[in-house]
Amino acid sequence: MKASDFLYLGLGAAFLAKDKISEQLTEMEKRGDISKDEAKQFMEDAVARAKKERDAFDSRLRDAIKEAVSELGLATKDDIDELKSLIEKS
Questions:
Q1: 48-90: pLDDT as tens digits
Q2: HSE (CB half, 13 Å, CA atoms) of 34?
Q3: d(C-alpha 89, C-alpha 83), whole Å
């Protein structure tokens, strides 16, 4: 399974979870367990936490990719730009 497959699997699970949470909040609201404002605040907090976690995941993923590129000795965009500059000067 490729990394992108895991990403899409995670996104699918997140959307499913969001739908389920939304349904549960609606049910709780109908029963009077929580107010509409409390349900709205809960969803806003959940979205903010998800964004923070996604940003942290993205950062860790970028770091892992940079490390893999470095360990493999692959040329980076900066390396290629530097070589182009040297060739143009010649």
A1: 888 898 889 889 988 998 898 889 988 889 999 999 999 999 7
A2: 15
A3: 10
